[in-house]
Recover the amino acids of this structure.
């Protein structure tokens, strides 16, 4: 009987659970495309700016990894989700992404990504204001590229290639991340 209870307890403890960050429950699993593989929540954390809660973020991958190099080396779909804790304009989000890309990618890399960054600008400016409670996701779908969604609705056209998504991941996970403790949390450290 004890052995059976131990097995049941171990199985229950081993199952992933939704994570709560600043009152937001982030699901433990996600899919970026119908029929695609199920992703697991690698880590989650809170983005703050001048002590203001901005968004709860989650990083979803096919398998958990605790290093930036490990995340960047993973092939397959990925997701960064941002659950807004305050309203933001599309320009504010876009400016923050550009700042992060500039801080974590070389001038040569940024030059190579100019067309993709311009396409991201078009998609993001179409978003309009993002309200508190909205969920913005940045997905990488193999064969499709980077897809931006708001509350589950795709916005604009997908942006082909993997280079842009790698650059976006570095916003949170690069050598000069948007927030050091958020990097550690997204990496599950």
């Amino acid at each position: 009987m004890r052995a059976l209870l131990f097995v049941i307890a171990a199985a229950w403890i081993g199952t992933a659970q939704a994570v709560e960050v600043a009152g937001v429950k982030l699901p433990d699993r996600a899919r970026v495309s119908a029929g695609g593989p199920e992703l697991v929540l690698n880590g989650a954390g809170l983005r703050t700016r001048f002590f203001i809660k901005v968004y709860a973020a989650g990083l979803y991958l096919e398998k958990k990894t605790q290093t930036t190099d490990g995340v960047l080396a993973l092939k397959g779909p990925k997701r960064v989700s941002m659950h807004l804790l305050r309203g933001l304009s599309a320009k504010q989000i876009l400016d923050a992404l550009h700042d992060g890309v500039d801080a974590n990618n070389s001038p040569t890399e940024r030059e190579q990504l100019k067309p993709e960054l311009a396409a991201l600008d078009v998609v993001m400016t179409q978003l309009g204001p993002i309200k508190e409670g909205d969920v913005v996701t940045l997905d990488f779908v193999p064969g499709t590229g980077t897809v931006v969604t708001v509350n589950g609705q795709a916005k604009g056209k997908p942006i082909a290639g993997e280079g842009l998504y790698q650059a976006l991941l570095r916003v949170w996970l690069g050598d000069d991340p948007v927030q050091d403790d958020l990097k550690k949390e997204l990496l599950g450290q």
DSSP finds seven helices and nine strands in the chain. The chain has a mean pLDDT of 90. Residues 18-186 form a domain with the Chalcone isomerase fold (CATH 3.50.70.10). Residues 90-104 form the longest helix (15 residues).
